[in-house]
Amino acid sequence: MHTAVEPVIDLAQERDEILKRYRRLLRSAKPYLKENDAKLIKKAFNTSAEAHKEMRRRSGEPYIYHPLAVAQIAVEEIGLGTTSIVAALLHDVVEDTDTTIADIERGFGKKVAQIIDGLTKISGIFEYGTSQQAENFRKMLLTLSDDVRVILIKLADRLHNMRTLDSMPRDKQLKIASETIYIYAPLAHRLGLNAVKTELEDLYLKYVEPEAYKDVARKLRESKTSRDRFINTFIKPIEDDLIASGYPYVIKGRPKSIYSIWNKLSKSKKPFEEIYDLFAVRVILKVPIEQEKAACWRAYSIVTDHYKPNPDRLKDWISTPRANGYESLHTTVMSRSGQWVEVQIRTDRMNEIAEKGYAAHWKYKGNDTRTGAGIDSWIGQVREMLEMAEQGDKTAAVEFLDDFRSNLYSEEVFVFTPKGELKVLQRGATALDFAFDIHTQIGAKCMAAKVNNVLVPLSHVLHNGDQVEVITSNKQKPNEDWLRFVVTSKAKTKIKDLIKEDNKRYITDGKELVTKRLKILRMDMTNELVNQLRAYFGSKTTSDFYYRVGKAHIDVKELNKFKAEKEAKENRALKLNTDTLQDAKAVGKELKKMHGERTDADMLLIGEDMDKIDYTLARCCNPIAGDDVFGFVTVMEGIKIHRVSCPNAVELMSNHGNRIIKAKWTSQKELAFLAGLRITGTDRIGLINDVTRVISNELHINMRSVTIDSTDGVFEGMIKLYVNNTSHLDTLMRKLESVDGVFDVVRFD
Ligand code: MN
């Protein structure tokens, strides 16, 4: 930011300029200063000027211009007071010079030191789109709970850096501008700093899409004359009546921001000439606070006396202010030349809040009880969310950032509790979001809801004015499915946490059951053994294995079978080492003698006598219980079981007929077999989700691998999964076929 520059500058003139800027700051702050404030500001200015005296900005200007400008923005554009001015003047001192936080505290007190500490902490490396950025952002918001002024000064800092972006190299410009549109503009919006937000957005466009910016700006300029003519004709009859009403007022047409017009152009794909809402007409009334509402509606009545309103476009943010504190009455009316015009009606108090946000809101709060809830409850929500994400790992931080950003931009829906208490939720919020908003436990146990006395499911989307009653049950438990339809970050985070907790409990339960069972079986619970168990039951991880036991998807009694088979295998390995395989029948008898009676779980009967003999399943065709199969006696690997439809079957049967033995399945116990399914269909959002849900909802089915291919809207999935038998597989295939968009499900080998 600061590089040494050859001293070709007139230093005396520069000193004058610095003083000039400092006096301007004092003048702007003057109306709000209490005794001693000016002294403190002067001290901060001197400290900052001294600390930065050797430094210059990249533009070559003295560095002190920057803190002075940030302080100026804080006073003039955000409406902050002495503490913030002092902090703004000193904001880069700790980071860029030898001054410490302790020095600041000694000189300016604890409050200023805390704010500067917050500012220094959040200024760390801000890599766009990384988890580091997400984590820093989270830290930055955490400081909200200490003092929201940290964020406000940070915004002033960012605004000045954006205004002076010209002297930065191109890559820095892009990085800083991207960060700005990604985080700072939404943040300004959420804090109700409309003017700051709009300027940040316009500056973003100016640097990232310079051609588009220039183009829109030029067209706005060129069309100004005709637009002004239109606006004057439009407001004339309204003005006449406003004068008659006796309310002091200001009425004007305000062009929308370049960024928002550019957004409209790119979204609608229409040329500039066809975009009509390039401006809004704003009526600002100067009335005492107790007359505000009546005056605004009176003005509304005047406007609609002359122009027909669009009934769908009436927005009353006076009776119910938006969550960022915004109050105004909006209507869209039809002009005489046939185009819709948005009219915003508000008082000068409301206008100041709309432009300056939080601080202005604060200023008025003392004498107005109606405007309380918005910002306070928002900061409360942010704090709550931050505390929930407190332990968060890196991915959690990114996830949090995404959730948070979607919350910043979304609009609200206003609903009521049965007792008539107003709740402001994000647009698209469901009954379940509402339940979680009331209390985590209410959300966790939510079964259904009554909306305006009609029973609705949890996923029901709420509308403005709905009265919502939550129905709970102690049997209810959060599940993954819920995440598909909740929209608020609060509900999302809570559900994820609850599911995690729940899973952990199943894992602990499962581990306990396994430990006990192994003790009964007198087996040592070594890592190796646990790993064998995991593989035996086809689980991907040990936790997954424990989880399935805990959830009773695996009966612990099946461990007995595992032990038996393990011992059989070990015995066989011994035996095969000493003997050579002569004849399947002999081996079979041998094996049967050895442990035939104990291996009652055997499922395949082999040979003329239909004995229970050990076997392995051929890998070429992956037979599963219920398939038509035959046994093939191999030289080295004992009996292999193939499907009759195996591609190798013909060759085996015709050339080695003497080594073929009969085989057939008996009872079908809960052993898993690997089978492959090929699913084809038309691709749509959520298809994979639906397919995997069908599969995992089928008890005892575990997927081993999934490959999905999608080209030009056609979807092909190859899924390998473990099933118990053919009828099990058939049921699954039928269910998969009935999934919307799937047209074929076939088995492959
Ligand atoms: Mn700075």
TrEMBL record:
Natural source organism: Fibrella aquatilis
GO cellular component, one term: plasma membrane
Entry's transmembrane regions: none
Family, as annotated: Belongs to the relA/spoT family.
Protein name: Bifunctional (P)ppGpp synthetase/guanosine-3',5'-bis(Diphosphate) 3'-pyrophosphohydrolase
CDD domains hit by this protein: ACT_RelA-SpoT, HDc, NT_Rel-Spo_like, TGS_RSH
Domain TGS per the UniProt entry, residue ranges: 411-472
Cross-referenced NCBIfam families: spoT_relA (TIGR00691)
Function (record text): In eubacteria ppGpp (guanosine 3'-diphosphate 5'-diphosphate) is a mediator of the stringent response that coordinates a variety of cellular activities in response to changes in nutritional abundance.
PROSITE patterns noted in UniProt: TGS
BP GO terms, sorted: guanosine tetraphosphate metabolic process
Highest taxon of source: Bacteria
